[in-house]
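Please, does this match?
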Amino acid sequence: MQSVNFMIICYNGRMSSTTTFCVTSDVHATVLERSYADGQIKPYGLSRYVTALSQRRASGEVITLDNGDILQGSPLLTYFHQKHLSPHLLAQVMNTIGIDYFNLGNHDFNYGLPILKQFLSDLNAKVLTSNVLLNGHPLGQSVLHHTKDGTRIALIGVVTDYIPHWEKPQHLEGITFLDPIEVVKSEVKQWRSKADLVVVAYHGGLERDPITGEPTEPLTGENDGYALTQIPGIDVLITGHQHRSIATRIGSTVVTQTAFNALEYAQITLEGSKVNDVKLVKLGDYEPDPCLAEVVKPWEDRTQTWLDQPVGRLYGHDYRIRDKFDARVHKHPLISFINDIQRELTGAQLSGTSLFNEPVGFNPQVTTRDIVSTYIYPNTLVVKRITGKTLKAYLEQCAEYFTVKDGQLAVNPAFDDPKPQHFNYDMVDGIDYTLTISNPVGQRVTVLTVQDHPVEDEEVFTLVINNYRAAGGGNFAMIAESETVAEINTDFVELLIAYFQAHPQLTPAHRSNITITL
């Protein structure tokens, strides 16, 4: 086991028997309360969190912790990261809020190590993540925090070690991920006798039902939260990654998780060394504090100007997403458009893409706002060489997205609970296929043809998809195992904008090549 250095943090001041942990996770760079997609005021944002924290701090000692996935998810940060300037904007935001501790999340690696290192360097908060090594050295370290009344709290941070299954390899050069379970076991063993309370921050979710212990997803190691609760000596486990609202106990361990985009925070109240109360606090109940708006205003103004820039015009179809379910049942023209661009850019025979969880779509006069509100991830394109057999396995897994309920097509509940994963249903162009959903799982591809002839198992195709899927994201192991033949290491958002600039007026073709039937 990699040895980890420890740090002791002491505070001086008035004595108080009540300490409150305030915890956020999966904020995804949501600083302000206004939606970038449509300008509406939303019940979220770190600006509201500032107000909530001010009230808590007025009534006693507060320890703040953010559990990762802070650097990705907002056009504000998409634009800022294009410039890659110092100091990092999100570090300034977190320093203004007064975040004490930070634990890395998987999306914090999305923009590569130079940006991540800049953020961590500019951040005042102590970084806890000890199971991620850069050139053999942990990016963070565990901390023994002394509260004002002398309670000793061991704070341990780890992140899911499943990240290499999703992240671009060039973003992880020199990085080693240690097994979070083994790291936590080791650190709890070292800290338990020194601390009155042991708190573990884990950027990962629960793989089992907290009540029954039954698996709620494939036990791939992406989420190991339940397994962590089985380690003796953990008083509080802070989880994340799944965007669930959880405040419960598993055995003797208090377990929390918060929704994404700063919709809420977890409030854990301590009386001395005991957890007195745990609850989730909705941030929509608080007014935004103007201080964060001032911190980000120069970049916010530039971002809004960038978002409003027209990039091209579309004709021939409605490219707005009016009905998300219907857009997946009857392949939406937007999917045809994206797949056609992916094929044109790479020369691949086939292309697969998905609608993300909350797709917006494009207006006839397409702006940068339309693009970044619809394609929210910094994905790149990868071309795989696959066989007909692999193609069928890929489509069979996509077909699991649907089920039959009361004689009607419906979304498989597993794609909504415990975490929305609508992005794991891909639609493929370059072939024609039929999915018969009343058939057993694994037997739903009932028609599969290319250029009017049935696809044979031995046939070979090139398939372009995003880097998340290419690495096996969504448990598409058959794709990850296929040969990689080409990559375009430019964010797809940039590729889309450049495509519109080269083709300012487009009338894309749309082909209804997918049939979903009972």
Notes: The chain is about 25% helix and 25% strand. Residues 7-302 form a domain with the Purple Acid Phosphatase; chain A, domain 2 fold (CATH 3.60.21.10). The two ends are 52 Å apart (CA to CA). The longest strand covers residues 274-282.
